[in-house]
Design a protein that fits this description.
homodimer; alpha+beta; three-stranded antiparallel sheet; 8 strands; binds manganese (II) ion; DNA-binding
DNA sequence: GTATATTGTTAGACGCATCTAACAAAATTA
DNA sequence: TAATTTTGTTAGATGCGTCTAACAATATAC
Protein backbone atom coordinates (compact mmCIF):
# COMPACT_ATOMS: atom_id res chain seq x y z
CA UNK A 1 0.00 0.00 0.00
CA UNK A 2 2.33 2.76 1.24
CA UNK A 3 6.01 2.57 0.36
CA UNK A 4 8.67 2.30 3.04
CA UNK A 5 9.57 5.90 2.31
CA UNK A 6 6.00 7.12 2.67
CA UNK A 7 5.78 5.22 5.95
CA UNK A 8 8.77 7.09 7.30
CA UNK A 9 7.14 10.42 6.50
CA UNK A 10 3.92 9.34 8.19
CA UNK A 11 5.77 8.25 11.31
CA UNK A 12 7.61 11.55 11.50
CA UNK A 13 4.40 13.53 11.03
CA UNK A 14 2.86 11.56 13.88
CA UNK A 15 5.84 11.80 16.20
CA UNK A 16 6.71 15.45 15.74
CA UNK A 17 3.18 16.86 15.69
CA UNK A 18 2.58 19.73 18.12
CA UNK A 19 -0.52 20.02 20.32
CA UNK A 20 -2.58 21.01 17.27
CA UNK A 21 -1.25 17.97 15.43
CA UNK A 22 0.73 20.17 13.07
CA UNK A 23 4.29 20.02 11.75
CA UNK A 24 6.12 22.56 9.58
CA UNK A 25 7.91 21.66 6.40
CA UNK A 26 11.12 22.90 8.00
CA UNK A 27 10.79 20.65 11.05
CA UNK A 28 9.99 17.60 8.99
CA UNK A 29 12.88 18.39 6.72
CA UNK A 30 15.28 18.60 9.65
CA UNK A 31 14.02 15.53 11.50
CA UNK A 32 14.11 13.36 8.41
CA UNK A 33 17.30 14.93 7.09
CA UNK A 34 15.63 15.49 3.75
CA UNK A 35 15.67 18.86 2.00
CA UNK A 36 12.57 21.06 2.10
CA UNK A 37 11.63 20.83 -1.60
CA UNK A 38 11.60 17.06 -1.33
CA UNK A 39 9.34 17.25 1.70
CA UNK A 40 6.97 19.63 -0.10
CA UNK A 41 6.58 17.28 -3.02
CA UNK A 42 6.03 14.28 -0.77
CA UNK A 43 3.35 16.23 1.11
CA UNK A 44 1.55 16.81 -2.16
CA UNK A 45 1.73 13.11 -2.89
CA UNK A 46 0.50 12.07 0.57
CA UNK A 47 -2.24 14.65 0.23
CA UNK A 48 -3.55 13.08 -2.99
CA UNK A 49 -3.50 9.74 -1.16
CA UNK A 50 -5.68 11.24 1.55
CA UNK A 51 -3.13 10.73 4.29
CA UNK A 52 -2.22 14.35 4.89
CA UNK A 53 -3.97 17.69 4.91
CA UNK A 54 -1.75 20.03 2.92
CA UNK A 55 -2.21 23.66 1.85
CA UNK A 56 0.67 25.75 0.52
CA UNK A 57 2.47 27.73 3.22
CA UNK A 58 0.35 26.17 5.96
CA UNK A 59 1.59 23.67 8.53
CA UNK A 60 0.93 20.00 7.75
CA UNK A 61 -1.55 17.75 9.53
CA UNK A 62 -2.25 14.05 9.26
CA UNK A 63 -5.80 13.10 8.29
CA UNK A 64 -7.60 10.45 10.37
CA UNK A 65 -6.51 7.92 7.77
CA UNK A 66 -2.90 9.09 7.94
CA UNK A 67 -2.93 9.07 11.73
CA UNK A 68 -4.18 5.52 11.75
CA UNK A 69 -1.53 4.39 9.27
CA UNK A 70 1.19 6.07 11.32
CA UNK A 71 -0.10 4.63 14.58
CA UNK A 72 0.01 1.12 13.17
CA UNK A 73 3.62 1.56 12.08
CA UNK A 74 4.54 2.80 15.55
CA UNK A 75 2.65 -0.11 17.05
CA UNK A 76 4.78 -2.50 15.01
CA UNK A 77 7.94 -0.69 16.07
CA UNK A 78 7.15 -0.79 19.76
CA UNK A 79 5.83 -4.35 19.80
CA UNK A 80 9.04 -5.42 18.10
CA UNK A 81 11.18 -3.62 20.68
CA UNK A 82 9.25 -5.26 23.50
CA UNK A 83 9.46 -8.66 21.87
CA UNK A 84 13.21 -8.39 21.37
CA UNK A 85 13.74 -7.46 25.01
CA UNK A 86 11.24 -9.81 26.64
CA UNK A 87 11.48 -12.87 24.42
CA UNK A 88 14.90 -12.71 22.84
CA UNK A 89 17.05 -11.29 25.59
CA UNK A 90 18.16 -8.04 23.97
CA UNK A 91 19.02 -5.01 26.09
CA UNK A 92 16.78 -1.95 25.73
CA UNK A 93 19.72 -0.10 24.22
CA UNK A 94 19.98 -2.49 21.26
CA UNK A 95 16.45 -2.79 19.94
CA UNK A 96 15.60 0.52 18.30
CA UNK A 97 17.64 0.04 15.14
CA UNK A 98 16.19 -3.41 14.55
CA UNK A 99 12.66 -2.13 15.15
CA UNK A 100 13.28 0.68 12.64
CA UNK A 101 13.56 -2.01 10.00
CA UNK A 102 10.95 -4.45 11.26
CA UNK A 103 8.26 -1.79 11.52
CA UNK A 104 7.95 -1.91 7.73
CA UNK A 105 7.29 -5.64 7.54
CA UNK A 106 3.86 -6.28 6.00
CA UNK A 107 2.33 -9.03 8.10
CA UNK A 108 -0.41 -8.23 10.59
CA UNK A 109 -0.12 -11.85 11.79
CA UNK A 110 3.47 -11.44 12.90
CA UNK A 111 2.74 -8.46 15.11
CA UNK A 112 -0.53 -9.88 16.41
CA UNK A 113 1.44 -12.93 17.47
CA UNK A 114 4.05 -10.81 19.25
CA UNK A 115 1.26 -8.94 20.99
CA UNK A 116 -0.26 -12.21 22.13
CA UNK A 117 2.99 -13.79 23.28
CA UNK A 118 3.77 -10.61 25.23
CA UNK A 119 0.30 -10.67 26.75
CA UNK A 120 -0.80 -7.37 25.18
CA UNK A 121 1.78 -5.02 26.62
CA UNK A 122 0.81 -1.39 27.18
CA UNK A 123 4.34 0.03 26.87
CA UNK A 124 7.55 -0.65 25.04
CA UNK A 125 10.92 -1.13 26.78
CA UNK A 126 11.44 2.64 26.82
CA UNK A 127 8.09 3.32 28.47
CA UNK A 128 6.40 4.58 25.31
CA UNK A 129 2.77 3.52 24.93
CA UNK A 130 1.93 0.91 22.28
CA UNK A 131 -0.90 2.02 19.97
CA UNK A 132 -3.82 -0.39 19.57
CA UNK A 133 -4.62 -2.21 16.32
CA UNK A 134 -6.40 0.90 15.04
CA UNK A 135 -3.35 3.03 15.64
CA UNK A 136 -4.94 4.77 18.62
CA UNK A 137 -2.63 5.58 21.49
CA UNK A 138 -3.72 7.00 24.80
CA UNK A 139 -1.04 9.27 25.97
CA UNK A 140 -0.11 9.91 29.60
CA UNK A 141 1.71 13.20 29.83
CA UNK A 142 4.43 12.48 32.37
CA UNK A 143 6.58 15.41 33.55
CA UNK A 144 10.32 15.44 32.97
CA UNK A 145 12.54 14.76 35.96
CA UNK A 146 14.07 18.19 35.29
CA UNK A 147 10.71 19.80 36.13
CA UNK A 148 10.44 18.12 39.53
CA UNK A 149 11.13 19.76 42.89
CA UNK A 150 13.57 18.82 45.65
CA UNK A 151 12.03 16.19 47.91
CA UNK A 152 9.89 14.65 45.16
CA UNK A 153 9.75 10.90 45.12
CA UNK A 154 9.34 9.65 41.53
CA UNK A 155 9.19 6.51 39.43
CA UNK A 156 11.03 6.42 36.10
CA UNK A 157 8.15 5.98 33.65
CA UNK A 158 9.78 6.49 30.27
CA UNK A 159 12.82 7.80 28.45
CA UNK A 160 12.47 10.24 25.57
CA UNK A 161 15.59 9.11 23.77
CA UNK A 162 16.35 5.57 22.63
CA UNK A 163 19.93 6.03 21.47
CA UNK A 164 22.26 3.24 22.52
CA UNK A 165 24.62 5.83 23.99
CA UNK A 166 22.05 7.34 26.30
CA UNK A 167 20.60 4.00 27.41
CA UNK A 168 24.06 2.56 28.07
CA UNK A 169 24.72 5.62 30.23
CA UNK A 170 21.62 4.73 32.26
CA UNK A 171 22.65 1.07 32.41
CA UNK A 172 26.00 2.02 33.91
CA UNK A 173 24.14 3.88 36.67
CA UNK A 174 21.65 1.02 37.18
CA UNK A 175 18.81 3.30 36.21
CA UNK A 176 15.94 1.31 34.74
CA UNK A 177 12.28 1.79 33.99
CA UNK A 178 10.30 1.73 37.26
CA UNK A 179 13.33 2.65 39.35
CA UNK A 180 12.14 4.86 42.23
CA UNK A 181 14.23 7.93 42.94
CA UNK A 182 14.19 10.80 45.37
CA UNK A 183 15.27 14.23 44.25
CA UNK A 184 17.89 15.23 46.85
CA UNK A 185 18.96 18.62 45.51
CA UNK A 186 19.33 20.81 42.43
CA UNK A 187 22.54 22.65 41.68
CA UNK A 188 21.48 26.20 40.79
CA UNK A 189 24.56 26.81 38.68
CA UNK A 190 23.92 24.23 35.95
CA UNK A 191 20.59 22.73 37.01
CA UNK A 192 22.20 19.35 37.50
CA UNK A 193 20.35 17.14 39.97
CA UNK A 194 21.38 14.89 42.77
CA UNK A 195 19.09 11.90 43.15
CA UNK A 196 19.11 8.85 45.39
CA UNK A 197 17.84 5.39 44.45
CA UNK A 198 18.61 1.74 45.18
CA UNK A 199 21.78 1.76 47.26
CA UNK A 200 22.99 4.96 45.60
CA UNK A 201 22.51 7.89 48.00
CA UNK A 202 23.69 10.65 45.66
CA UNK A 203 23.99 10.21 41.95
CA UNK A 204 24.45 13.37 39.88
CA UNK A 205 22.46 13.79 36.66
CA UNK A 206 23.09 16.68 34.27
CA UNK A 207 20.19 18.73 32.93
CA UNK A 208 20.70 17.04 29.56
CA UNK A 209 19.94 13.74 31.24
CA UNK A 210 17.13 14.81 33.57
CA UNK A 211 15.30 16.34 30.61
CA UNK A 212 15.19 12.96 28.92
CA UNK A 213 13.66 11.11 31.87
CA UNK A 214 9.87 11.12 32.19
CA UNK A 215 8.64 10.34 35.66
CA UNK A 216 5.51 9.67 37.63
CA UNK A 217 5.55 11.71 40.85
CA UNK A 218 4.74 9.40 43.76
CA UNK A 219 4.98 11.94 46.56
CA UNK A 220 5.98 15.55 46.97
CA UNK A 221 7.08 17.67 49.97
CA UNK A 222 4.69 20.56 49.25
CA UNK A 223 1.76 18.27 48.61
CA UNK A 224 -1.13 20.65 49.20
CA UNK A 225 0.57 24.00 48.76
CA UNK A 226 0.61 26.55 45.97
CA UNK A 227 3.73 28.56 45.22
CA UNK A 228 3.74 31.72 47.47
CA UNK B 1 25.88 -2.25 1.49
CA UNK B 2 23.70 -4.03 -1.12
CA UNK B 3 20.22 -2.73 -1.79
CA UNK B 4 17.15 -4.86 -1.21
CA UNK B 5 16.82 -5.19 -4.98
CA UNK B 6 20.40 -6.31 -5.43
CA UNK B 7 19.87 -8.84 -2.66
CA UNK B 8 16.94 -10.35 -4.51
CA UNK B 9 19.05 -10.81 -7.64
CA UNK B 10 21.83 -12.44 -5.59
CA UNK B 11 19.40 -14.82 -3.96
CA UNK B 12 17.93 -15.80 -7.33
CA UNK B 13 21.39 -16.34 -8.81
CA UNK B 14 22.21 -18.60 -5.88
CA UNK B 15 18.95 -20.52 -5.92
CA UNK B 16 18.62 -21.13 -9.64
CA UNK B 17 22.24 -21.91 -10.41
CA UNK B 18 22.76 -25.16 -12.32
CA UNK B 19 25.49 -27.70 -11.46
CA UNK B 20 28.11 -25.35 -12.94
CA UNK B 21 26.76 -22.53 -10.81
CA UNK B 22 25.45 -20.75 -13.89
CA UNK B 23 22.16 -19.05 -14.71
CA UNK B 24 21.03 -17.60 -18.04
CA UNK B 25 19.67 -14.09 -18.41
CA UNK B 26 16.41 -15.59 -19.63
CA UNK B 27 15.99 -17.82 -16.58
CA UNK B 28 16.73 -15.02 -14.15
CA UNK B 29 14.36 -12.78 -16.03
CA UNK B 30 11.55 -15.34 -15.78
CA UNK B 31 12.14 -16.29 -12.16
CA UNK B 32 12.28 -12.68 -10.99
CA UNK B 33 9.56 -11.57 -13.40
CA UNK B 34 11.79 -8.77 -14.62
CA UNK B 35 12.45 -8.15 -18.30
CA UNK B 36 15.74 -9.29 -19.82
CA UNK B 37 17.21 -5.86 -20.54
CA UNK B 38 16.76 -4.95 -16.89
CA UNK B 39 18.50 -8.13 -15.83
CA UNK B 40 21.40 -7.47 -18.21
CA UNK B 41 21.97 -4.01 -16.77
CA UNK B 42 21.79 -5.27 -13.19
CA UNK B 43 24.34 -7.96 -14.05
CA UNK B 44 26.71 -5.27 -15.24
CA UNK B 45 26.19 -3.42 -12.00
CA UNK B 46 26.72 -6.48 -9.82
CA UNK B 47 29.76 -7.29 -11.91
CA UNK B 48 31.38 -3.93 -11.15
CA UNK B 49 30.65 -4.61 -7.48
CA UNK B 50 32.53 -7.88 -7.75
CA UNK B 51 29.51 -9.99 -6.89
CA UNK B 52 28.96 -11.59 -10.27
CA UNK B 53 31.04 -12.86 -13.15
CA UNK B 54 29.49 -11.44 -16.29
CA UNK B 55 30.55 -11.63 -19.92
CA UNK B 56 28.21 -10.69 -22.76
CA UNK B 57 26.23 -13.62 -24.14
CA UNK B 58 27.69 -15.97 -21.51
CA UNK B 59 25.76 -17.47 -18.63
CA UNK B 60 26.11 -15.66 -15.31
CA UNK B 61 27.97 -16.94 -12.26
CA UNK B 62 28.27 -15.61 -8.74
CA UNK B 63 31.79 -14.82 -7.55
CA UNK B 64 32.91 -16.18 -4.16
CA UNK B 65 31.95 -12.80 -2.69
CA UNK B 66 28.53 -12.91 -4.33
CA UNK B 67 27.96 -16.49 -3.23
CA UNK B 68 28.76 -15.56 0.35
CA UNK B 69 26.42 -12.56 0.27
CA UNK B 70 23.62 -14.69 -1.19
CA UNK B 71 24.21 -17.48 1.32
CA UNK B 72 23.90 -15.07 4.21
CA UNK B 73 20.59 -13.75 2.91
CA UNK B 74 19.28 -17.30 2.56
CA UNK B 75 20.56 -18.05 6.06
CA UNK B 76 18.52 -15.14 7.40
CA UNK B 77 15.46 -16.32 5.47
CA UNK B 78 15.63 -19.87 6.74
CA UNK B 79 16.50 -19.00 10.34
CA UNK B 80 13.50 -16.70 10.34
CA UNK B 81 11.21 -19.42 9.03
CA UNK B 82 12.46 -21.81 11.68
CA UNK B 83 12.12 -19.22 14.42
CA UNK B 84 8.54 -18.39 13.41
CA UNK B 85 7.56 -22.06 13.48
CA UNK B 86 9.47 -23.18 16.56
CA UNK B 87 9.22 -20.12 18.80
CA UNK B 88 6.15 -18.26 17.64
CA UNK B 89 3.77 -21.05 16.74
CA UNK B 90 3.32 -20.37 13.02
CA UNK B 91 2.52 -23.20 10.62
CA UNK B 92 5.13 -24.04 7.98
CA UNK B 93 2.69 -22.82 5.32
CA UNK B 94 2.63 -19.28 6.71
CA UNK B 95 6.26 -18.36 7.19
CA UNK B 96 7.74 -17.91 3.74
CA UNK B 97 6.19 -14.54 2.97
CA UNK B 98 7.29 -13.11 6.30
CA UNK B 99 10.80 -14.47 5.81
CA UNK B 100 10.94 -12.88 2.35
CA UNK B 101 10.77 -9.53 4.10
CA UNK B 102 12.84 -10.29 7.17
CA UNK B 103 15.74 -11.67 5.15
CA UNK B 104 16.62 -8.08 4.24
CA UNK B 105 16.88 -6.84 7.83
CA UNK B 106 20.39 -5.60 8.55
CA UNK B 107 21.24 -6.92 11.99
CA UNK B 108 23.62 -9.84 12.37
CA UNK B 109 22.74 -9.84 16.09
CA UNK B 110 19.08 -10.60 15.45
CA UNK B 111 19.79 -13.67 13.37
CA UNK B 112 22.63 -14.86 15.61
CA UNK B 113 20.18 -14.72 18.47
CA UNK B 114 17.57 -16.71 16.55
CA UNK B 115 20.26 -19.25 15.73
CA UNK B 116 21.18 -19.53 19.40
CA UNK B 117 17.63 -19.75 20.71
CA UNK B 118 16.94 -22.45 18.12
CA UNK B 119 20.09 -24.30 19.16
CA UNK B 120 21.80 -23.93 15.79
CA UNK B 121 19.32 -25.70 13.55
CA UNK B 122 20.61 -27.45 10.43
CA UNK B 123 17.37 -27.18 8.45
CA UNK B 124 14.43 -24.86 8.03
CA UNK B 125 10.79 -25.96 8.43
CA UNK B 126 10.73 -27.10 4.80
CA UNK B 127 13.84 -29.25 5.16
CA UNK B 128 16.15 -26.83 3.35
CA UNK B 129 19.64 -26.57 4.85
CA UNK B 130 20.57 -23.37 6.68
CA UNK B 131 23.84 -21.86 5.44
CA UNK B 132 26.48 -21.08 8.08
CA UNK B 133 27.56 -17.56 9.00
CA UNK B 134 29.87 -17.49 5.98
CA UNK B 135 27.04 -18.35 3.65
CA UNK B 136 28.35 -21.90 3.12
CA UNK B 137 25.72 -24.57 2.80
CA UNK B 138 26.41 -28.27 2.56
CA UNK B 139 23.87 -29.74 0.32
CA UNK B 140 22.49 -33.27 0.58
CA UNK B 141 21.07 -34.28 -2.76
CA UNK B 142 17.91 -36.14 -1.81
CA UNK B 143 15.97 -37.89 -4.60
CA UNK B 144 12.41 -36.91 -5.38
CA UNK B 145 9.68 -39.27 -4.26
CA UNK B 146 8.71 -39.49 -7.93
CA UNK B 147 12.06 -41.18 -8.67
CA UNK B 148 11.59 -43.92 -6.08
CA UNK B 149 10.59 -47.50 -6.77
CA UNK B 150 7.66 -49.54 -5.53
CA UNK B 151 8.50 -51.06 -2.15
CA UNK B 152 10.85 -48.25 -1.12
CA UNK B 153 10.50 -47.09 2.44
CA UNK B 154 11.34 -43.39 2.67
CA UNK B 155 11.42 -40.46 5.08
CA UNK B 156 10.13 -37.06 3.92
CA UNK B 157 13.29 -34.96 4.11
CA UNK B 158 12.28 -31.72 2.40
CA UNK B 159 9.73 -30.04 0.16
CA UNK B 160 10.83 -28.10 -2.91
CA UNK B 161 7.92 -25.69 -2.83
CA UNK B 162 6.94 -23.45 0.06
CA UNK B 163 3.68 -22.09 -1.27
CA UNK B 164 0.90 -21.93 1.29
CA UNK B 165 -1.35 -23.86 -1.11
CA UNK B 166 0.98 -26.80 -1.48
CA UNK B 167 1.82 -27.00 2.22
CA UNK B 168 -1.84 -26.79 3.20
CA UNK B 169 -2.45 -29.66 0.82
CA UNK B 170 0.15 -31.70 2.73
CA UNK B 171 -1.32 -30.61 6.06
CA UNK B 172 -4.72 -31.92 5.04
CA UNK B 173 -3.11 -35.31 4.38
CA UNK B 174 -1.09 -35.20 7.62
CA UNK B 175 2.13 -35.33 5.64
CA UNK B 176 4.93 -33.67 7.57
CA UNK B 177 8.68 -33.53 7.49
CA UNK B 178 10.13 -36.83 8.78
CA UNK B 179 6.94 -38.73 8.03
CA UNK B 180 7.89 -42.26 6.95
CA UNK B 181 6.10 -43.61 3.92
CA UNK B 182 6.13 -46.78 1.88
CA UNK B 183 5.64 -46.65 -1.84
CA UNK B 184 2.81 -49.09 -2.50
CA UNK B 185 2.39 -48.71 -6.25
CA UNK B 186 2.75 -46.44 -9.25
CA UNK B 187 -0.05 -45.90 -11.73
CA UNK B 188 1.55 -46.23 -15.18
CA UNK B 189 -1.09 -44.07 -16.83
CA UNK B 190 -0.34 -40.77 -15.04
CA UNK B 191 2.58 -41.73 -12.80
CA UNK B 192 0.54 -40.99 -9.72
CA UNK B 193 1.70 -42.89 -6.64
CA UNK B 194 -0.03 -44.75 -3.88
CA UNK B 195 1.80 -44.49 -0.59
CA UNK B 196 1.06 -45.65 2.94
CA UNK B 197 2.03 -43.86 6.15
CA UNK B 198 0.71 -43.36 9.68
CA UNK B 199 -2.72 -44.94 9.73
CA UNK B 200 -3.26 -44.23 6.04
CA UNK B 201 -2.79 -47.42 4.02
CA UNK B 202 -3.25 -45.93 0.55
CA UNK B 203 -3.03 -42.25 -0.12
CA UNK B 204 -2.77 -41.18 -3.76
CA UNK B 205 -0.27 -38.50 -4.75
CA UNK B 206 -0.17 -37.05 -8.24
CA UNK B 207 3.13 -36.71 -10.10
CA UNK B 208 2.95 -32.98 -9.54
CA UNK B 209 3.05 -33.64 -5.81
CA UNK B 210 5.56 -36.51 -5.71
CA UNK B 211 8.01 -34.39 -7.71
CA UNK B 212 7.97 -31.79 -4.97
CA UNK B 213 8.78 -34.18 -2.15
CA UNK B 214 12.45 -34.95 -1.45
CA UNK B 215 13.02 -38.12 0.47
CA UNK B 216 15.69 -40.15 2.15
CA UNK B 217 15.41 -43.79 1.14
CA UNK B 218 15.47 -45.94 4.27
CA UNK B 219 15.11 -49.32 2.63
CA UNK B 220 14.51 -50.67 -0.83
CA UNK B 221 13.21 -54.01 -2.16
CA UNK B 222 16.01 -54.47 -4.70
CA UNK B 223 18.73 -53.43 -2.26
CA UNK B 224 21.77 -55.07 -3.87
CA UNK B 225 20.55 -55.46 -7.41
CA UNK B 226 21.24 -53.62 -10.64
CA UNK B 227 18.53 -53.17 -13.22
CA UNK B 228 18.46 -56.25 -15.52
C1' DG C 1 25.32 -24.48 -44.52
C1' DT C 2 21.66 -21.51 -44.77
C1' DA C 3 17.24 -20.16 -42.68
C1' DT C 4 14.73 -19.64 -38.53
C1' DA C 5 14.01 -19.35 -33.77
C1' DT C 6 15.76 -18.14 -29.46
C1' DT C 7 18.36 -15.53 -26.44
C1' DG C 8 20.72 -11.33 -25.22
C1' DT C 9 22.15 -6.35 -25.80
C1' DT C 10 21.64 -1.39 -26.88
C1' DA C 11 19.12 2.82 -26.94
C1' DG C 12 15.98 5.64 -25.14
C1' DA C 13 12.02 6.63 -22.04
C1' DC C 14 9.66 6.74 -17.50
C1' DG C 15 8.37 7.05 -12.39
C1' DC C 16 10.19 7.70 -7.88
C1' DA C 17 12.71 10.05 -4.44
C1' DT C 18 16.20 12.90 -4.07
C1' DC C 19 19.04 17.24 -4.88
C1' DT C 20 20.47 22.48 -5.99
C1' DA C 21 19.39 27.05 -7.61
C1' DA C 22 16.26 30.54 -8.00
C1' DC C 23 12.31 32.77 -6.61
C1' DA C 24 8.19 33.93 -3.52
C1' DA C 25 5.55 34.31 0.64
C1' DA C 26 5.32 34.98 5.53
C1' DA C 27 7.29 36.37 9.76
C1' DT C 28 10.35 39.23 12.27
C1' DT C 29 12.96 43.31 13.15
C1' DA C 30 13.98 47.93 12.81
C1' DT D 1 5.73 50.60 7.26
C1' DA D 2 9.82 49.21 5.16
C1' DA D 3 13.82 46.19 5.35
C1' DT D 4 15.52 41.85 6.49
C1' DT D 5 15.33 37.11 7.76
C1' DT D 6 13.12 32.84 7.67
C1' DT D 7 10.32 29.54 5.63
C1' DG D 8 8.34 27.40 1.64
C1' DT D 9 7.64 26.58 -3.47
C1' DT D 10 8.92 25.99 -8.37
C1' DA D 11 11.92 24.45 -11.92
C1' DG D 12 15.04 21.53 -13.57
C1' DA D 13 18.69 17.86 -12.90
C1' DT D 14 20.31 13.25 -11.13
C1' DG D 15 20.55 8.12 -9.93
C1' DC D 16 18.07 3.88 -9.55
C1' DG D 17 15.38 0.31 -11.27
C1' DT D 18 12.18 -0.49 -14.48
C1' DC D 19 10.12 -0.74 -19.28
C1' DT D 20 9.54 -1.15 -24.80
C1' DA D 21 11.40 -1.15 -29.38
C1' DA D 22 14.93 -2.26 -32.26
C1' DC D 23 18.88 -4.73 -33.31
C1' DA D 24 22.58 -8.48 -32.78
C1' DA D 25 24.50 -12.85 -31.52
C1' DT D 26 23.90 -17.63 -30.73
C1' DA D 27 21.54 -21.94 -31.10
C1' DT D 28 18.42 -24.95 -33.64
C1' DA D 29 16.14 -26.80 -37.62
C1' DC D 30 16.04 -27.92 -42.16
MN1 LIG E 1 12.40 2.89 19.05
MN1 LIG F 1 10.87 2.60 22.08
MN1 LIG G 1 11.02 -19.69 2.22
MN1 LIG H 1 12.01 -22.67 3.59
Amino acid sequence: MNSLIEENYLKALFSYANDQGEVSVKDLSEKLDIKMPTVTSMMKKLSTKGLVQYTSYKPIKLTAKGRKAAGIIIRKHRLTEMYLVEKMGFGWENVHEIAEQMEHVKSPDLFDRMDELLDHPKHDPHGSPIPDKNGKVDWINYPKLSECKVGDRVRLAAVVNSSADFLSFLNKRELQLDTEMELVSVEPFDNSMIVSYHDKPNETLSLLVSEKLLVEVISSLDSNQQSP
